[in-house]
Specification:
Number of strands: 2
Protein name: C2H2-type domain-containing protein
Number of helices: 2
Strand order of the largest sheet: 1-2
Structural class: mainly alpha
Shape: extended
Number of domains: 2
Helix content: 40-55%
Strand content: under 5%
Domain C2H2-type: 10-31
Order of helices and strands: EEHH
Distance between the termini: 54 Å
Radius of gyration: 17 Å
Organism: Caenorhabditis japonica
InterPro entries: Znf_C2H2_type (IPR013087)
Length: 81
């Protein structure tokens, strides 16, 4: 299978990659054992390799809740402030 240029950036260290394979190898070597962190409130969760499906669902729910909260705050600021 041919890989197209991904031109992606690692969301953790900002390193750039041309292919999905390069990014995956980098992530598995450099970041796979790091704890998962919420980009909004900086809450820390377990190592991604140790989390089961239920825990991932909790992490996703947390992040979606943070997104909703930030959007509601923006809406209130626009319409009330």
């Amino acid at each position: 299978m041919n890989e197209h240029s991904l031109d992606a950036q690692c969301h953790i260290c900002r390193r750039k990659f041309e292919t999905k394979t390069q990014f995956r190898e980098h992530y598995e070597l450099e970041h796979a054992h790091d704890a998962v962190k919420c980009i909004f409130c900086k809450s820390t969760f377990e190592n991604p390799l140790d989390m089961d499906t239920q825990r991932w669902e909790e992490v996703h729910s947390h992040i979606y809740g943070e997104i909703l909260y930030s959007r509601l705050a923006e809406y209130e600021e626009k319409n009330v402030g």
